Amino acid sequence: MDPIRNPYAPGAGQRPPELAGRDAELTAFDVVLERVARGRPERSLVLTGLRGVGKTVLLGALRSAAVRAGWGSGKLEARPDTSLRRQLAAALHLAIRELGPVEDADDGTRHVLGVLKSFALRDAGPTSKLRERWQPGIDVPAVPGRADSGDIEIDLVELLGDVAGLAAERGRGVAIFIDEMQDVGPDDVSALCAACHEISQQGMPLIVVGAGLPHLPAVLSASKSYSERLFRYVRIDRLDPQAAGLALRSPAHEEGADWTDEALAAMYDATAGYPYFVQAYGKAVWDVAPRSPITADDVRVGAPEAEAELTVGFFGSRYERATPGEREYLRAMADIESADAEPAQAGVPTSAVAEQLQRKPQSLSPARDALLKKGLVYSAERGRIAFTVPHFGRYLRSHG
């Protein structure tokens, strides 16, 4: 098959040619946008799932839906070592620009931009060198005394209220999209929940759409108890066989090619329906297949190439971030996972890891905490730990 015409896209956050299996989420979001536009109450949205299930891709598709609806939108990727204030200021600046041109802005828009500038400049404090080096690129004077108290919760409530008010005046809405939301700091996530709560109570047209690892609901709940009612949680999981087949077959049809039913079954056995794996295997098998339709024999030939690429790029790059002690913890998890009599339950008991390594649980806390911070594992529930990457345990067991 012609590699130049290969339609599959196994990139991080890269939208595949066929966004299969996500119609329900896209349709539900269209309803949210329309309800909010009509002044109906709606909750903000949180997508959760393992790495490689397509959360970032879906987040991008939802943002496109907001843009098509005429909303202002901004997107950011949370980082554990970065304050939310600066990133959110940039995202909101873009959202305000999407509501209408700011070059000839009216007084209301200039006021909100001035409040946004005050919010942004408060990031590093009035005497910080960071403040002197960084300017938010907002060509209006800052509005003192609004969203610049230094208390992120007070400031965010004021800022989002003003932005939502501007959107309401325009008959539009604003949507802020936050990827890797579990990495938002404790104070910032508490402020974000409080601001969403205030906006929701006032019925203003602003929503937050977050995406993160499976423990994100627990992070939000620990911040504000009412977050369980504040957000609508949607678990993004692997594709079923029909959706995985569509993700492979539809792009092939666009190129005048096809897969046999047996090949699609073999692909599902190899990928388990995880969207990133579907794209990675699809790309590798396409390149080795001599002709259309692609057969199960082609899958058997191409699978080792896909596995080798995943070993280096998807699994290996993450494993290399761990220290020797952390790798020992990961391998113990993988061994226990293989023998777990309750595979339907996420993760393995932390007590079992300690027993496997013949160590006291307290002595393993530093390794576990470091792996949590690196995003290699997450706390599935109290007393259990799980990999954030599908098939990571299988990779560790096969690579000793």
Task: Give the helices and strands, then pairings.
Blueprint: H1 23-37, E1 44-48, H2 55-68, E2 72-77, H3 84-99, H4 107-121, H5 129-133, H6 152-169, E3 174-179, H7 186-202, E4 206-212, H8 216-223, H9 227-230, E5 231-235, H10 241-254, H11 261-271, H12 275-288, H13 296-319, H14 324-339, E6 348-349, H15 350-357, H16 365-373, E7 377-381, E8 384-387, H17 392-398
Parallel strand pairs: 1-4, 1-5, 2-3, 3-4
Antiparallel strand pairs: 6-8, 7-8
Structure description:
With 400 residues, this protein is an alpha/beta fold. The protein folds into three domains: 23-235, 3-Layer(aba) Sandwich (Rossmann fold); 252-319, no CATH class; 324-398, Orthogonal Bundle (Arc Repressor Mutant, subunit A). The protein is 54% helix and 10% strand. It is built from 17 helices and eight strands. It has helices at residues 23-37, 55-68, 84-99, 107-121, 129-133, 152-169, 186-202, 216-223, 227-230, 241-254, 261-271, 275-288, 296-319, 324-339, 350-357, 365-373, 392-398, and strands at 44-48, 72-77, 174-179, 206-212, 231-235, 348-349, 377-381, 384-387. The chain has a five-stranded parallel sheet with strand order 2-3-4-1-5, with helices on both faces. The chain has a three-stranded antiparallel sheet with strand order 6-8-7. The chain is globular, with a radius of gyration of 23 Å. The mean pLDDT is 90.
